[in-house]
Amino acid sequence: MNIKFRTNSFQIVGESKPIREVFELIEKAAPTDSTVMVFGESGTGKEIIARALHAKSLRANKPFVAVNCAAIPSELLESELFGYEKGAFTGAGVTRVGRMEMADQGTVFLDEIGDMPLTLQVKLLRVLAEREIDRIGGAKSIPIDIRVIAATHRNLEQSVQNGSFREDLYYRLNIIPVVMPPLRERKTDIPLLARFFLSKFTGSSQDSFEKTISNEAMAIMIAYEWPGNIRELANFIERMVVLSPGPVITPRDLPEKILGGHSGRNWNTLENEELAENPAQVLQVSLRNTYSMSLPDEGMNLKKAVEDFERGLILEALEKTNWVKNKAAALLGLNRTTLVEKLKKMNLKQEMAS
C-alpha cells in the first residue's frame, strides 16, 4: 500500500525508501509519549507527520493543537502559548487560556521551533522538565499533561553553535528525530503524489472529466527538482487542473519553470503529415524521436524506466564533460551537491562507466 496512514483529514502518500523509513519511525514513536523533533525543508509535510503521530497515539481522541512559532509575533507568542490572567497587562480584561493548556491530555505541535525567541525557550524548557505552565500574571503554576512534537526547517545544531538556540532545549526536544526527505530525494513518489492531488483537485473542479498526466509530462515533472517540495507539487497540480484545456496534461501544458531544458522543444512539430489530425499521436511520435522512448507491447515498469532515463542522462552529461562534476551539473541544470548526491545513490563512479 502506498498510503500508509489515513484519517478523516489527511493522508500520507509514498512508497520510496526515504518515506518508508519515516513511516517506520512513526509506527514506533506514536504509541509513546516521547518528544519528537521533525526536521525538514519547508513544504515537505512536517505538520502532516505530527498529525500522524497524534492520530496513532493513545492521545488520538484528545486535542491536537498546532502553533507556528514563526507566524506569531515574538511579543505575542508567550501569551499565545501560556495564556494570561485578567489584569496581567493593559488590555487583559479577561483570563485567557494558552495553547498549551488547550492541549491538556493531547498533543501540542510547535512548528518552526527554531524561530522561537531565547526568552521563551527558557520557559518551554521548564514546561518540558516540570510539566507545568505559568500564565502571564499568574500566581501559581498549572500542571498540564501534554505530548510535545516540534518541527523546524533550520539546522538546530548550527543554531546552537551560533547561540540562537539553547543547547539544553535542543537535547530535550530531540529525543526522537524524524527527518522528512525533500521531494527531490523521493522522486519515485512523484507519480503517486501527482495522482493523489489530481484526484483531490479534480473532484473539486467544475470540469466534467477526470484529468490525467501523460507519461511524457510525468517524466519532465520527475526530472524537475521541486524546491518547494510537496506544497509546490500540490499547488502546481491544482493549477494544471484549472488551466489545462483537455483531459490529459501534456508537456505543452507545463510552464517554462517545470519544462526547464525542454522548454525550447516544439511539441507541435509534425513528423508525419498523416498524423496532422491527431495531436496526441503527433506528440507521442515527437517524444519518441526526441527521447528514444517507446512502450513495449508487453508493457513496462515506469518507475524503473524513469530511473534508467535519469541515470542515462547523468552518464551522458558526465561523459561529455570528462566527469567534471561542476560542468555536468550545469548541463543538467542541477546544483553540484545535488548531482553528487545522485551519484552516491546510483553508486556511479567513473571507472564503472568506462
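Second entry:
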Amino acid sequence: MEKERKSGKNWREWQEKGLKLLEKLKEEAEDGIPVVVEGINDEKALKGLGVSGTIVKLKGKHSLSEVAEKIASKFKRAIILTDADYEGRKLAAQISKLLEQYGSHPDLRYLKMTRLLGKTAVEQL
C-alpha cells in the first residue's frame, strides 16, 4: 500500500512537471519562437494541446538544409521537439547542426525535458 502511494505521488509530480513544461512551450511559441517537429502528426498533437504559433515540420518536400536556412532567415532561435526514438534523435542532431551553421540557435531544452519525463513521441505530451 505504501509503495502504491509513493508511485502515485511520483506520477502526479511527473504529470505536474509535464504540464508546466507544456505551458512554458505554449508561452514561447506564442512569443514567436518556432517549434520544429518531425511531421504532420506531431504538428496536430501540439495544436491539439493548444500550442499556437509557428510549427515547422521536418518531413516534407524540402531538404533539412532548406528548412534550416528558412528558419534561420526569420528566427534567431528555434525549439527542437523531435521524437526520442533513433530517427528523432538523428533528425534533432542534423537540424541543430544546420541551424547553427545558418546562424540560429537550436533550443534542445524541451526535447531533453520530455525525454526525462519518459515521453518518446511528441504525441505523448
